[in-house]
Design brief:
The protein is α/β, with parallel strands linked by helices. The chain contains 20 helices and 19 strands. It has helices at about 5-10, 35-40, 105-115, 125-135, 155-160, 165-170, 180, 185-190, 215-220, 230-240, 250-260, 285-300, 310-315, 330-335, 375-390, 395-405, 420-440, 450-465, 480-500, 510-530; strands at about 65, 85-90, 115-120, 145, 195, 195-200, 200-205, 210-215, 245-250, 270, 275-280, 320-325, 345, 360, 365-370, 410, 420, 445, 470. The protein is globular. Belongs to the bacterial solute-binding protein 1 family. This is Sugar ABC transporter substrate-binding protein.
Length: about 550
């Protein structure tokens, strides 16, 4: 339900392309928060037992796969969670839904919940402004989705002043009272920890970051998309580009992210032997990737219109051979335009054919949803609501939240998979997007129209995991990053694009890096290093 471009930003999957994404995790620079967060007992993890995937997942990040929607969906909650209406602020990345009064799916959800869920739904751009307006008001909604990378500042003090500490309700075995919340993985919960306290229900997303995907019908002319060195890939791109058709989409920063993996650039930050941090921009690996990108641009293999909004149609028709998307599951976007097309995912390779590449895992969550301060009875009611909305794939509650009512918003196809009706396509997308961005279960692989795709995606994820690298600062918090990180990133990226496209020489890289460091990069480094978990491994020297 989230657009491809926007999801690159929201999921944090683009962090390694140069973003200083601030996770809403450890707020450790104030009051010993780093130690407190390290000492905190995270919620006990207890996977949902009522469902077995066709293809198993793993703690490494491998997502479970389902070849069809489970028959006889199991109930994951015992009773409607609400006795009183709930107000919430969230965001949608789809067209906003019809309002509750004229949206039968929303009304049926309220009936299942036991009371009205009244949503204030923000859109992009403008969500941080809406958040700030409500935060400054005398009457907060019960729930407010807190995004991880939209520049909301002073998160630690804000949470302490305005929101409810949920630690005693969720830490350790306490979470078992809410089985669907207990089914969220520890890695997801870490993003909801600030200053040693749990502040909300996390929203898991795919843990896989960006990948390059190519149209196999196009790449077969040069022996396929898979390559063994940067030189081989360069030669293939040149052969595919002729002034009408081009090898690569013009999203230079996203493409550069792919090249950086081949040259061994770190995922956001590199952890040195002395536990200090080196940023992506400061490495020779990333600089070499920039020079490689400039060489490709000079060879005219990039589609020339830098303002191209969506390369997907042109990849489908062969005018562009490859583009960058979030995770292998994005093949569904291409299937939607051409049901005969299963796109290939490029597996990272060493730039010289020898060096070990990396694959940058994504952030894995899209923030969390804190509660306003209230009494214990209300807290438990809101937690029960969060438990309902976190119902795992394949449950009755998941069907209600994502598809509505059978015979109204959806029907079952011949294989028993839910398919939206005409009414459902009008009522569901904006509402489901708003609900999903506020509260979600762990992600799965599911494409009912093409079950073989699920098998192929599952296999591709296993290959990518062989080279997986996670951002060592994910799940920690830097206030400087939250305040100025996006601005610094945008300025540095502007210079990078100028270098790649020939408007500036490579020497401009050094000046841009100095500005990044003095403008807040060095301060971010110190703040992240101060809260770096002890278990994070060394990734460089």
């Amino acid at each position: 339900m989230i657009s491809r471009r926007r999801f690159l930003q929201v999921s944090g999957a683009a962090v390694v392309a140069g973003s200083t994404l601030a996770g809403c995790g450890d707020g450790g620079t104030a009051g010993g928060g780093a130690k407190a967060s390290g000492d905190l007992k995270l919620p006990t993890y207890k996977p949902f037992a009522g469902l077995q995937p066709d293809l198993p997942g793993a703690e490494s990040g491998l997502e479970p796969g389902f070849l069809r929607f489970p028959a006889d969906a199991a109930a994951s909650v015992q009773a409607p969670p609400l006795k009183n209406a709930v107000t919430a602020l969230t965001e949608t990345f789809a067209t906003p839904p019809p309002p509750m009064g004229s949206n039968a799916m929303w009304q049926s959800l309220n009936q299942a919940l036991g009371a009205e869920l009244k949503l204030t739904i923000g859109t992009d751009p403008g969500y941080p402004e809406k958040f700030a307006t409500l935060l400054a008001s005398d009457s907060l909604p019960d729930l407010m989705w807190l995004p991880p990378n939209q520049g909301i500042p002073n998160i630690g003090p804000m949470l302490e002043a305005k929101f409810q500490d949920l630690t005693k309700y969720l830490s350790g075995d306490a979470v078992l009272e809410y089985p669907n919340l207990a089914a969220l993985k520890p890695a997801s919960w870490r993003t909801a920890v600030v200053n040693g306290k749990i502040w909300g229900a996390p929203i898991p997303s795919t843990p896989f970051g960006q990948v390059m995907m190519g149209n196999p019908k196009t790449w077969e002319k040069v022996g396929g998309l898979q390559s063994t060195s940067a030189d081989e890939f360069f030669a293939k791109c040149k052969e595919l580009s002729n002034g009408t058709n081009y090898a690569l989409e013009p999203a230079i920063i996203n493409m550069l992210h792919m090249f950086g993996e081949w040259f061994g650039a770190p995922n956001g930050w590199r952890v040195n032997a002395d536990r200090s941090l080196t940023h992506l921009y400061e490495t020779e690996n990333y600089r070499a990737a920039v020079e490689y990108a400039a060489k490709l641009w000079a060879a005219k293999v990039f589609y020339p219109d830098l303002n191209l909004a969506d390369a997907t149609p042109k990849t489908v028709n062969g005018q562009i051979a490859a583009q960058v998307v979030v995770g292998p599951r994005a093949t569904a976007d291409f299937r939607a335009l051409d049901p005969s097309l299963f796109v290939d995912t490029l597996i990272p390779f060493g730039h010289d054919g020898k060096a070990k590449p990396v694959y940058d895992m994504g952030y894995g969550t899209v923030g969390f949803t804190p509660f306003k301060k209230t009494d214990e009875g209300r807290i438990r009611e809101l937690l029960a609501l969060m438990d309902y909305l976190s119902a795992p794939f394949g449950t009755k509650e998941y069907l209600q939240k994502n598809f509505g009512v059978q015979g109204q918003q959806y029907e079952l196809d011949a294989q028993g998979n839910p398919v939206l009706t005409k009414a459902g396509t009008q009522q569901a997308p904006g509402l489901v997007s708003a609900l999903t961005i506020m509260n979600s279960p762990e992600s799965v692989i599911f494409n009912p129209a093409f079950p073989d795709d699920t098998k192929k995606i599952h296999a591709t994820e296993q290959k990518l995991l062989e080279f997986a690298m996670r951002n060592p600062t994910a799940g920690t918090y830097s206030d400087t990053s939250s305040k100025v990180g996006p601005k610094l990133t945008a300025a540095f990226r502007d210079t990078i694009v100028d270098i790649v496209t020939g408007r500036q020489k490579i020497g401009a890289y050094d000046e841009a890096l100095k500005r990044w460091k003095s403008g807040g990069g060095d301060k971010m480094r110190g703040e992240f290093a101060a809260v770096l978990p002890a278990g994070v491994p060394v990734t460089g020297s």
